[in-house]
Structures are given as structure tokens and as C-alpha cells.
Amino acid sequence: MSEPLNTEQPASGNGGDTEQRPALAINAQYVKDLSFEVPGAPGIFAQLQQRPPEISIKVDVQARGLEGNVYEVVLDTRADCKTGESVAFILELSYAGVFTLNVAPEDVRQMLLIECPRMLFPFARQILASTTLSGGFLPLMLGPVDFAALYNRHAQSEDDAGSPQPILLA
After folding, report:
1. Burial class of residue 13, CB neighbours in 10 A (0-12, 13-18, 19+)
2. Within 10 A of 97 (CB to CB), how many other CB atoms are there?
3. Is 23-144 a CATH 3.30.70.270 domain?
4. Which residues contact 29 (CB under 8 A, 6 or more apart)?
5. What residues form DSSP beta bridges with 101?
6. What is the pLDDT of residue 5?
7. H or E segment and range at residue 92
8. Which stretches does DSSP call E strand in 8-85?
9. Which residue ranges make up each domain of the chain?
10. How far from the centroid of its chain's Cα atoms is residue 160's Cα?
11. Cα 158 vs. chain centroid, distance in angstroms?
């Protein structure tokens, strides 16, 4: 594993003074897309009383450059809840942030795919919980996601495949 990332990088100031810039700055964060469907309502609520739900969660991170050292990172989350063969709900959230990175070029990918989604995740988690609660279900409470382990697993699969693979994080 690589060494820890620096949290500050030197920047030239006026008069030759050296000031410190944060390695990572959040410029904005926002809901890019949110979809919540309960196709079997209202009957699904009675079915949930008879049989516990099965919930599958998928998380994906995407990043793209905007200009210079400014990037958009999107944390895509999908939750599918079923009871038996019936769909209880489908919840999809794309939660995004605009970040300014002041790190060495070799550290950009790790920052975009580990640190940025780590900062977005608590907000996305809250939106998922409040959406399911507002939809008549118990709040969907996701546990922490280890973005570093997922990044490392993805990097290993790229090495094994010999070419870049899409990064599906859960």
C-alpha cells in the first residue's frame, strides 16, 4: 500500500512567502439524481409483515475533471428491497460533489476514488435513510463503506485483467 497522502501542499504566495493549501477542498455537494419507487404499494406493506425483506445495495464512484484541478465526484447508490418475489422498493441516488485537489498527479486517482466519496457518504447515507422513512419503510441505515479497500480490490482486478475495469464498489 502507498504511503499516506499529504494533507497540505505548499503554494507560492506574494513576496516569496510559502502558504499551505489544503490537499482537498469541497466546493459544492448536491443531489444529482434521486429516484424512489414502490411498485407494489399498498399491498407490499402487508407482505412485509409476513416475510422479512431482502435488501441488496450497490455503490459506484465516478469522477471527471471539470477544469484544472477541479473535479466532480459522483457517488451512485442503488438499493433494491424485495420480499419473496415482490419488489418492496427501488431507491437510486446519485450524490455528487465538486472538489479542488492540490496533490501530486500520482495521488489524484486515490483522492477522487477514496477520500472524496468518503466525505460524500455520510450525506448520501442520510438522504437514503430519510427517503425510505418518508416512503413508509424503516430507514435504510447503511454501514460504513471502506473506500480504500474497495479501491485496492479494484486496482488488483485491473492488474489481473491487464486493462482498466469499471469501478463497482459494492
Report:
1. exposed
2. 22
3. no
4. 95, 96, 97, 98, 120, 123
5. 24
6. 41
7. strand 86-101
8. 8-12, 18-22, 24-37, 54-67, 70-83
9. 23-144
10. 25
11. 20
62: amino acid identity, one letter: Q
**Amino acid at position 105, single letter:** P
Residue 116 has a CB neighbour count (10 Å cut-off) of 27
What φ, ψ does residue 72 adopt, rounded to 5°?
-105, 130
> Rounded to an integer, what distance in angstroms lies between the CA atom of residue 102 and that of residue 12?
13
Peptide bond into 117 cis (omega under 30): no
Residues in the chain: 170
Q: What average pLDDT score do residues 117-136 get? A: 97
Query: Has this prediction a pTM greater than 0.85?
Result: no
Give mean pLDDT, residues 63-68.
Answer: 95
Of 120, 121, 124, nearest to 98 (Cα)? 120
The three three-digit cell numbers of residue 74, written as one number: 459522483
Alpha-carbon distance 153 to 165, whole Å? Answer: 11
Average pLDDT over residues 115-120: 97
